[in-house]
């Protein structure tokens, strides 16, 4: 039971942290892709979709290779799970927020600035409230993907054990009834 609790706590910690970081970064990336025209914009769009299209086993093996080749910087554990989850879920967040931004009426921001609001006030009082539902939806999707991920986590976990890895390990012997409760 102690192993189950620890695995669940680690899964929740990774899920919440990865979701917060990926939502912040993904929202900024989506705003940059939609609002600004820059060289390499098409390539950036392709790179955003790449983790979604790549099989998880390929992603997990690639990340494991990256982390093992940089052993002086990374040791397998909580940090590598966190990085892998952020990298995996950020694509889903960018796509979700980007869909909202494409239909966003920029005239609302222009009207706020015409009425005397500066850029920060316009962002805080106009842009953010209109993006909040998309950001929440993206964050919930990202959290669900992070909490559920087994394949990538299995590759990069090292000595850490998340809930899906615990369930997989215990299923080889006998699934404890507490797993069904969770």
SSE layout and pairings?
Blueprint: H1 2-35, H2 41-53, H3 56-69, H4 78-102, H5 106-114, H6 119-148, H7 151-156, H8 163-171, H9 177-181
Q: What this model shows, in words?
A:
The longest helix has 34 residues, at 2-35. It contains nine helices and no strands. The protein is elongated and about 65 Å long. It is mostly helical. The N and C termini lie close together (12 Å).
Biggest β-sheet: count, sense, barrel? none
Which spans have pLDDT < 50 for at least 5 consecutive residues? none
Number of helices: 9
Mean pLDDT value: 89
Can you give the helix content as a percent range?
over 70%
Number of strands: 0
Shape, principal axes of CA atoms: elongated
Q: In whole angstroms, how far apart are the ends?
A: 12 Å
| Computed Rg | 19 Å
The arrangement of helices and strands along the chain is HHHHHHHHH
Q: Strand share of the residues?
A: under 5%
Which structural class best describes the helix and strand composition? mainly alpha
Looking at this protein, list some descriptive labels.
mainly alpha; 0% strand; 182 residues; 9 helices
Kindly summarize this structure in a few lines.
The chain is mainly α and 182 residues long. It has helices at 2-35, 41-53, 56-69, 78-102, 106-114, 119-148, 151-156, 163-171, 177-181.
């Amino acid at each position: 039971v102690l192993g189950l609790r620890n695995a669940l706590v680690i899964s929740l910690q990774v899920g919440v942290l990865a979701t917060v970081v990926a939502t912040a970064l993904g929202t900024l990336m989506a705003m940059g892709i939609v609002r600004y025209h820059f060289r390499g914009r098409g390539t950036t769009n392709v790179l955003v979709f790449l983790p979604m299209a790549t099989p998880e086993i390929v992603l997990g093996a690639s990340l494991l290779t990256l982390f093992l080749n940089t052993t002086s910087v990374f040791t397998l554990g909580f940090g590598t799970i966190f990085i892998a989850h952020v990298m995996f879920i950020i694509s889903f967040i960018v796509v979700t927020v980007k869909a909202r931004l494409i239909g966003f009426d920029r005239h609302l921001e222009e009207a706020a600035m015409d009425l005397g609001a500066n850029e920060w006030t316009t962002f805080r009082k106009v842009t953010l409230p209109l993006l909040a539902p998309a950001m929440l939806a993206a964050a919930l999707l990202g959290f669900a993907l992070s909490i559920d991920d087994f394949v990538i986590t299995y590759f990069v976990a090292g000595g850490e054990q998340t809930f899906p890895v615990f369930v997989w390990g215990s299923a080889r012997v006998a699934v404890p009834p507490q797993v069904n409760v969770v």
